[in-house]
Amino acid sequence: MSEHLRTALELAASRIPALPLRAGKVPFGNCRRCADNACGGRPNMKHAGPCACPGPCHGWAAATTDPDVINSGIWRRAWLRASAVAYHPGGAGLTVVDLDNAEAITWARKNLPATQTVPTTRGEHWLYLGRMQSANAVRPGVDIKSTMAYARYLGPGTGVMADLPDAARALAVKKPSPAPTAPHPVTASVPAREGTCPHRTPRFLDRGIAMAEQRITAASNAVHNTVYRTFLAVLSTHGRCGCLTDTHVARLFTAAQAQGESPRHCTDAWANALTTLGM
After folding, report:
1. How does DSSP classify residue 188?
2. Which helix (H) or strand (E) holds 163?
3. Which of 14, 33, 4, 22 has its CA nearest to residue 59?
4. Cβ count within 10 A of residue 51
5. How far is residue 3's CA from residue 203's CA, in Å, rounded to a whole number?
6. Which long-range contacts (CB under 8 A, 24 or more apart) does 22-30 make?
């Protein structure tokens, strides 16, 4: 039995959902059957949901406390290739405040209650009892890992775990936008009309944009790639007849930015999709 497999089984016995990480501290990619959620959708926080794939698919949502799954043949092969063990904090009712550098640690010592602490390569993980929304870069050098996220398991750490403080929850609360518009003005170009519109009704376009928004919103990993491929799909279907407007593009950009994409990345992904299609 590999060391990683043994660690995962110990975590599972403590009701902490575990999963393998490959080189680069990233989850194993989805199998062909589960690629692009072809299996029926993203799993929920406790089980595989509509997906019955026996492999470690779907990133954080693959984490499990079932020893039979962790010790199954396909997972055993993953453990042999794994470089580390991760766990789903939210699934265990925990929150990890990930402090990436000395400055972040200094800030935490002044603003957060003492709790169980685990040293990391660059800083520390502070573990709290309670779950919350995960969020990256809530302040310089600080990430929140809880629901719909994974954290690398680096040992039990030291100290007594405290309850999740309001000061940590407040970090993930987004400040209201100054105006109820898209997060960033649309700077993408809309293709010019090249011919007669083949769509019989505007509802076809509206439904296509809504489905694109839903696909971006549902992405739990590989968000960059999902945004680009969704932009590509929208443009290939609706981009040559002149139906798309700035309003439609703004809806897509809003969905992407809600997933953490920067305005610049949205603009670049849109431009790359246009180039790929020769528009």
Report:
1. P
2. strand 162-163
3. 22
4. 21
5. 55
6. 22/81, 22/82, 22/83, 23/83, 24/83, 25/83, 25/84, 25/86, 25/152, 27/56, 27/59, 27/60, 27/62, 27/86, 27/150, 27/221, 28/55, 28/56, 28/57, 28/62, 28/78, 29/57, 30/57, 30/58
Q: pTM, whole model, 2 decimals?
A: 0.62
Q: What are phi and psi of 164, to 5 degrees?
A: -60, 120
Asked if 87 and 64 touch (Cβ cutoff 8 Å), the reply is no
CA distance 216 to 249: 13
Residue 186's CB is within 10 A of a number of other CB atoms, namely 22
DSSP 40-101: SS---SSS-TT----SS-SGGGG-B--HHHHTSHHHHHHHHH-SEEEE-TGGGTEEEEEE-S
Cα–Cα separations (whole angstroms), residue 132 to 63, 73, 90, 161, 257: 17, 34, 7, 16, 20
Residue 27 bridge partners (DSSP) = 21
Average pLDDT of the residues in 112-128: 96
Q: Which of 195, 190, 176, 174 is nearest to 251 (CA)?
A: 190
Q: Is 196 left (phi over 0), alpha (psi -120 to 50) or beta?
A: beta
DSSP at 161: P
Cβ atoms of residues 153 and 85 within 8 Å = yes
Q: Which two tokens stand for residue 209?
A: 């944009």
135-191 confidence digits (pLDDT tens): 988 999 999 999 889 999 999 999 999 999 999 999 988 655 444 444 555 556 666
